[in-house]
User: Which sequence fits this backbone?
């Protein structure tokens, strides 16, 4: 199956429109791990507008470690585009220097 880049959602932060999109590579990894776009989009949006703006200003890639679903969502910014780079199993995570790490933990 051939995968294409895809737009998942658009949101407004302080009057500025942002799109959340995934690369073909991310789409393939999501398919392999049976993770749908609502989970990925929800993880990004759950960071909240202030944290998203801060990450965009820093210009670094970021990773969200979702302990509930045991996945990690790696993403970056390009102007007003949030680009999902890949989705991986949490236990296999390695991130490059400078990558911001966010965690969503299981509630005990």
Assistant:
């Amino acid at each position: 199956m051939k995968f294409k880049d895809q737009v998942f959602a658009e949101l407004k932060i302080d009057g500025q429109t942002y799109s959340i999109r995934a690369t073909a590579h991310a789409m393939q990894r999501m398919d392999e791990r049976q993770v749908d776009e609502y989970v990925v989009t929800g993880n990004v949006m759950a960071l909240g507008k202030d944290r998203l703006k801060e990450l965009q200003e820093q210009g670094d890639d970021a990773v969200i470690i979702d302990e509930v679903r045991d996945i990690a969502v790696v993403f970056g910014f390009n102007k007003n585009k949030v680009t999902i780079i890949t989705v991986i199993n949490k236990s296999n995570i390695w991130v490059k220097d400078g990558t911001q790490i966010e965690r969503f933990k299981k509630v005990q």
